[in-house]
Amino acid sequence: MSQSTKHAWVENAGREPGHDPPIDFAEPVSGSTRVMTLAQVAFFTSVAVLAYTYAGYPLLLAVWAKLAPRPVRRAAFEPDVAIVVVVHNGAAFISRKIASCLGQDYPSGRLRVLVVSDGSEDSTCALVDSIEDARVSLLAFPQRRGKAACVNDALAACRERFVVMTDVRQPLDPLAVRRLLENLADENVGAVSGKLMHERQGMSDFGEGLDAYWRYEQFMRRTESRIHSMVGVLGALYALRRGCFREIPPQTILDDVLIPMRVVLQGRRVVFENEALAYDEALTDASRERARKVRTLAGNFQLLTSHPALLAPWRNPIALQLISHKLMRLIGPLALAVALVTNIVLIDGGFYFVATLAIQIAGYGLALLGALWPRAGKLRLVRLAMAFVSLNWFVVLGFVEFASNRDTHRWKSPSPQADDTRSST
Question: Cα dist. 262→151, 255, 420 in Å?
């Protein structure tokens, strides 16, 4: 017997079989190693969230629409239709708006315009009353309640099977109503969204960046429409099968999302019409665009917290689209913050983390450069960086607005005219 074998036999002497002490082969894990592992998980998770939200989901839509498109059975269709314009202090726009509605390429005997005044304090109601055309009527409420309450009352007052909802500020293309209703010839379609076109002349550099984002947004809406339904419609212009309308809570901020989502829950589609156009002025006022986006994002928080059933795939056939298009955008700022902080923690982890941190710093640096030096905004890359950072910052402000302001549905915005304190609802 060797010396080592004899030594092992002596150590184990007297022990009963099956009672040998467990052998621990694992090396102890240090606290710093555990922190680095958690940082890596958080970093790659946040990067994956951002990549899916801004690139993966649009790519998924494009492939999905290519492999399994659902075309709309469009046809010539000329039913009676009411164009509904909900407005608050819209004197600066109302005459032009009504003219564009009455100027539609549509049988005049089958079209009427209903203007709903939400507690207007300017000359909006007087201007509507002065129009000598039997197709124009006014539904005036003395107290301002918000757009959602007015939409409920307006649609209850309509007897037409089809309505076109439109905002006061944007004039309509002469073919807008006709193109929208052609989609409603398909019984599977419950609502149809139009398309917003911004004037290019005079657009600010900040506006150019937002306009690029808007074109990206319209691509996703158009592609969602090809596979089933859009997540929301253009509030400035959309058509609705009135029988699909369900009354919405008066405090609703995003009626142009909740109404079409309820259409989808009834088994009908919400589609996009590329040739139904509404025209808006150039994006020049950054403060106004900020207020508009913050309000919209506050509305997204309200929608998802007030109607969580919309996120359930067994209830909502486009739950994946809603989660990808709306919910993931709201998570974006948190993912950006986590990606930056964990990237700094992991900076000693090799060239990859050095490169990703450099890319992040460069992106934020370009946005800061554009904010501090307006001439830099002429560069496309700077404009895009500014738009991306601004829109994610607006998400944060939207959450604050949602959490702190219960009166957001009564939005107040600056009017282009000195004698108006607020413009359209």
Answer: 15, 10, 35
Report if residue 333 sits inside a domain.
no
Q: Are 180 and 101 in contact (CB under 8 A)?
A: no
pLDDT of 333 above 50: yes
* Summary mean pLDDT of the chain: 87
Three-state secondary structure call for residue 76: coil
Tell me 325's DSSP state: I
pLDDT in tens, 369-415: 988 888 887 888 888 898 899 999 999 999 999 999 766 655 554 34
Instruction: Report yes or no on 378 lying in a domain.
Output: no
Cβ pair 264, 317 in contact under 8 A = yes
Q: Which residue range is the domain that position 196 belongs to?
A: 81-288
- Nearest C-alpha neighbor of 53 from the set 403, 388, 394: 388
Tokens of 124: 């909006």
Domain count along the chain = 1
Q: Is residue 76 part of a domain?
A: no
Terminal C-alpha separation, the chain? 97
Q: What is the distance between the alpha carbons of residues 264 and 308, in angstroms, rounded to a whole number?
A: 15
Residues 6+ apart with CB under 8 A from 84: 114, 116, 151, 154, 155, 158, 163, 164, 165, 166
Residue pLDDT, tens place only, 20-34: 555 454 455 556 788
The crossing angle, in degrees rounded to 10, of helices 380-404 and 286-306 is 50
Does 83 have pLDDT greater than 50? yes
Between CA 162 and CA 223 the distance in angstroms is: 25
Q: How far apart are CA 233 and CA 259, in angstroms?
A: 9
What confidence tens digit (pLDDT) does each residue in 159-187 have?
Answer: 999 999 999 999 999 999 999 999 999 99
Measured between alpha carbons, how far is 138 from 154 in angstroms, rounded to an integer? 10
Q: Which amino acid is at 11?
A: E
Q: Retrieve residue 269's tokens.
A: 């589609």
CATH number for 252: 3.90.550.10
3-state secondary structure of 410: coil
271 in any annotated domain: yes
Determine the Cα–Cα distance for residues 420 and 424; give it in Å rounded to an integer.
10
Residue with tokens 């370009």, as numbered in its chain: 366
Q: Are 292 and 357 in contact (CB under 8 A)?
A: no
